[in-house]
Amino acid sequence: MSDVTTWDAAAWLDELRAASSLVARERQALERRHEALFDLGSLLSGGPSGKGGVPDVMGKVDAYVDWERARRAEPDGAWEELAEGMCLVAGLRLAGLAREADVIQRRVLDRMTWEDVAEALGVSRRTAFNRYDVAVDMLQAVGKARAVAGDWSPIAAEDG
Known about the structure:
The protein has about 160 residues and is mainly alpha-helical. Helices cover about 75% and strands about 0% of the residues.
């Protein structure tokens, strides 16, 4: 049981929130690049031009290949972190902790402010904090690996 308490659940949730922000920024940047590279109107109107004023179709194809590679790249493991966060939320729901899962989803993965979380859930800001604290305490007790795997059995046994 000592290995369970060697990590900080609240700090991990902060890391998940940062990973979610990184993924969102990365997606936006890739989408902007995609839109700029594949402006059909620009291609049909003859620009940007390659040799002899002919539209640079091969340049567009090369740019598309580069975009696809970048889109599939994983920025500093943020995609894996985000996937773990989604597993955590699903595990909380399966353990009967849907209210806590709603707070984690909105605060950590959706990066909402505390005020927005409370408004979205129709609760006070204090209640949102309390639900977050309950989730952190339970996560701390179970451990990251088991929580992400959806194994909340010690919590369920204590509640039962």
